[in-house]
Design goal:
- By secondary structure, this protein is mostly helical.
- The chain has a single domain, classed as Up-down Bundle (Ferritin).
- It is built from 13 helices and two strands.
- The protein has a two-stranded antiparallel ribbon.
- It is globular and about 70 Å long.
- The protein starts with 15 loop residues before the first helix and ends with a helix.
Length: 324
Amino acid sequence: MVADTVDAGAPAEQGLEEYFESRVAGEQRIEPRDWMPEGYRRTLVRQVAQHAHSEIIGMQPEGDWLTRAPSLRRKAILLAKVQDEAGHGLYLYAAAETLGVDRADLTERLIEGRQKYSSIFNYPTLSFADVGVIGWLVDGAAICNQVPLCRSSFGPYARAMVRICKEESFHQRQGYELLLRMMAGTEAQRAAVQDAVERWWWPSLMMFGPPDADSPNTRQSMAWRIKRDTNDELRQRFVDMSVPQADRLGVTLPDPDLRWNAERGHYDFGEPDWAEFKRVIGGGGPCNAERIARRRAAHENGAWVREAAAAYAAKRAAEREAAE
C-alpha cells in the first residue's frame, strides 16, 4: 500500500533529488507541489496524456455501434460505457494538468500527431460481436495494465486510476456477458464472436507495448514507481487470465503455440507481429487517419462551447469581485 505524503524533513535547497528518490523508494506518493526531477515530470506527462488520449479516442470504435445496437437494452449499456470512457479521459487530463501542462495543448499535440494513443483503437469494429470482444479482451488487457497503476508514485494519477479500474472491470464483465449470450444464440452469432476474437486477440496482446528488450522507458519508469510491472510480465498475466475464460466461452484463440507449461506455471504463447505493431503506432493502421480526423472535427465543432463556458466563468468571476 502506498503511504501518505510526508513533508516533514524535506530539504530546503540541497539534496532534493536524494530526498525524492528516498520517498519513492519508501513508497511515499509524490504530489504536484513536491519537487520532482524534470525527467520524472516529462515521463508522467507523456504517459498520463497518452492514457487520456486513448480513453477519448477509444470512444470511437464502440461509438460506431450506438445507432445500430440490436436492442434498447444493448444501446443503453453501450451508451453508458462510452460515457464512462469520456469520464476517464477527463480524470486523466485533470491529473496531467497538475503537472503544469494545459489540456488544450495536449489536445493539439494529439490531433497534430505529436502524441500517441493506444494502438488497439486503430482497428475497425465490423460487427456487434466486436463490442463484446472489446469489453472482454481490450478492457481486460486495460485492467491488467492499469490496476498496478493504482500504486503509482504520483498521487493524482494513482487516485484517478482507482475509479477508472473499477469501471473498466465492470466493462469487462459487460463484454463477457454479451459474448456468453451470443454464444448461446444462433450459429451465425457464434461465428461472429469467433471472427471477432480472431481479429482482436493479437492487437490486445500488443496493448502492453513492445517486448521488454525493446522498451526504452520501462526500466526508468519502474525505478520511479510510475510503472509497476514490465510489458512482458503484464502480457503473460493477461494470457493466463484469458485462456480459461476463452474455454468457458467456447471460442478458440488464434495461436497455435498456445499451451499450458506446467514447469513455468504459465501458458506459453506465440509472438505478436511486431512489424504490424510498429506500423500501426506509426500511423499506418486501418483507422489511424479516421480516428484523428474525427477527433479534430469534434474539437473544432466544440469551440463555441469552450468559448461560452469561458465567458460564463469570466462573468461569474467579475460578479464575485464586484460583490467583495
